From TrEMBL:
Active-site residues (renumbered): 60 (proton acceptor)
Source organism per UniProt: Quillaja saponaria (Soap bark tree)
Annotated protein name in UniProt: Peroxidase
Binding positions for heme b per the UniProt entry: 183
InterPro entries referenced in this protein's UniProt entry, alphabetically: Haem_peroxidase, Haem_peroxidase_sf, Peroxidase_pln, Peroxidases_AS, Peroxidases_heam-ligand_BS, Secretory_peroxidase
Annotated residues for binding of substrate: 153
Gene Ontology molecular functions: heme binding; lactoperoxidase activity; metal ion binding
The enzyme's E.C. designation: 1.11.1.7
Disulfide bonds: 29-106, 62-67, 112-316, 190-222
């Protein structure tokens, strides 16, 4: 099934996407993708939540300065990764591990930005999501500063603001829904959602979008004066499997993140969600998995550098 999907997608997106190419390393570093996949497999076996961590890392990399590994840099004053909008982003050690092996196998060839994109794909596969070919050939950026990450989408953004931030990156409302559905795996800290539970509306009260049968559970897990670092799944009941269950949860008022809940309020984004639950779906309706793949490939093209604006870093956490 995964193989058929991969073939179909190669056909659909052609053999090159923008300036990137499928199989970019097939001659210069044929083992590149298998080295990355086995590093991700080991990391996810050791810590199942690492799959979600790596997928999130790809999003945060792409949304600031394009998908160029700018978030990985750690050896300059005020690096991007310290930005408020990147709070909780992890997975750097897994990328570093893959890079160390790649530098032994084929020094100076595989960019850190490509490692992040390929690791995100492998993470999706590890959680039973779709396998898909990732166009590669990104080069690593030479800029990383936390001031550049001030426009990251935020959980409390209005739906209009979320849409605008995605449009700015060349992504549509449909992409916003599908990419937010990445919250099908992983967890959030109470820090990002307690405000929905107690003082959401002036005068107190909770976000009216929360299903009344879900509210007590959330309030119990994230009490008003509790530990903000306690974590809870974002796709209640299915947080380790990559599937469209999160969209059903959003429809039913079981969204954990406020930004996910907002997707069910807007006519356009709601109709995208509903399209995956038509009476004829999955036989005739759109495929969530295939559509997600198109959106994540599109996200992976944001601001890519394929020329001398970029470099191939020797170490992912430092510029050359
Ligand atoms: C629409 C705007 C988005 C907002 C406001 C948002 C916000 C968040 C927040 C607050 C968390 C919890 C972070 C933590 O506690 O460590 C989170 C987790 C996550 N996000 Fe998003 N996100 C958005 C879009 C995306 C996109 C586009 C992707 C990937 C395609 C993504 C993938 C993930 C994943 C996989 C996690 C779980 C991480 C973990 O378990 O450590 N998110 N997101």
């Amino acid at each position: 099934m995964a193989f058929v999907l991969a073939l179909f997608l190669s056909f659909l997106i052609g053999f090159s996407q923008g300036k990137l190419k499928l199989g970019f390393y097939s001659e210069t570093c044929p083992a590149a993708e298998s080295i990355i996949r086995s590093t991700v497999r080991n990391a996810v076996f050791a810590d199942p939540n690492m799959a979600a961590v790596l997928l999130r890392l790809h999003f945060h990399d792409c949304f600031v300065e394009g998908c160029d590994g700018s978030i990985l840099i750690n050896n300059v004053p005020d690096p991007e990764r310290q930005a408020f909008g990147h709070q909780g982003v992890r997975g750097f050690d897994v990328i570093d591990k893959a890079k160390t092996q790649l530098e032994t196998a084929c020094p100076g060839v595989v960019s850190c930005a490509d490692i992040v994109a390929l690791a995100a794909r492998d993470a999706i596969v590890m959680t039973n999501g779709p396998d898909y070919p990732v166009p590669t050939g990104r080069r690593d950026g030479r800029v990383s500063n936390k001031s550049l990450a001030s426009e990251m989408p935020d959980v409390s953004d209005s739906i209009e603001k979320l849409k605008a931030k995605f449009f700015d990156k060349g992504l549509t409302e449909k992409d916003l829904v599908l990419l937010s559905a990445a919250h099908t795996i992983g967890t959030t800290a109470c820090f990002f959602m307690t405000h929905r539970l107690f003082n959401f509306i002036p005068g107190g009260g909770s976000d009216p979008d929360i299903n009344p049968s879900f509210l007590p559970e959330l309030q119990q897990k994230c009490p008003q004066t509790g530990d903000p670092n306690v974590r809870l799944p974002m796709d209640e009941g299915s947080e380790q499997t990559f599937d469209k269950h999160i969209l059903q949860n959003i429809k039913d008022g079981f969204a954990v993140l406020e930004s996910d809940a907002r997707l069910n309020e807007d006519l356009v984004t709601k109709s995208v969600i509903d399209s995956y639950f038509g009476v004829l779906n999955p036989l005739f309706g759109p495929s969530f998995e295939a559509d997600f793949v198109q959106s994540v490939i599109k996200m992976g093209q944001i601001g890519v550098k394929t020329d001398l604006l970029g470099e191939i870093r020797k170490k992912c956490s430092s510029f050359n």
